Amino acid sequence: INGGAIAATSIAAKEKPLIVPHQVRLIDPYDGKPCTIEWRYTAEGELVRVSTRSGRIIPKSPAW
Length: 64
Hints:
- The protein has 64 residues and is mostly beta strands.
- The protein has one helix spanning 20-23; strands at 26-27, 34-35, 37-41, 47-51, 57-58.
- The chain has a domain at 20-58.
- It has one helix and five strands.
- Residues 10-58 form the Large ribosomal subunit protein uL24 C-terminal domain.
- It comes from Rotaria socialis.
């Protein structure tokens, strides 16, 4: 139909920002699965991330 010519197609990759609450999850240290978190204060007054599934503290990376 097009005279035997092969149509050139290409896919352009475009970066998009992540929607952090929906597309990024932290790993629960108890079972190794993605989880949601809550921010809570410890008895010492330190603000920590806590897994909503297991209730365990999710440690911050050393870079923090």
